[in-house]
Amino acid sequence: MSLLPRLFGSRKPVAPTNRVDQVLAAGPDSARPVRAHVYREAYVTYESGYRRKGVVMDFTETGVRIRFPTNESLPAVVTLSARSVGLEGEADVIWQKNSEAGLHLRGR
Fold this sequence. Notes:
The chain is mostly beta strands. Helix content is about 15%, strand content about 45%.
């Protein structure tokens, strides 16, 4: 046991308390709103009328993260119909990675 303090020293590590306090104190003023995690059915319709079925993984009042069964690319603007979580309307595709995409509802 006396070998460990000789190898690594006996000082205790000093944690950056100001940064830790900031993370722990993040509340309603944080940049990202709290997301509700769900697993609900939703539909995305393209301007051409093509309709895809997907699953809402999580959502906020202004957007959703949706997962599709295939890796097809989405157009820049789609119409979202996720009645089970109370979200409908035109949405911008913010990001897409493989079969998941992040949509931001317009006008919210």
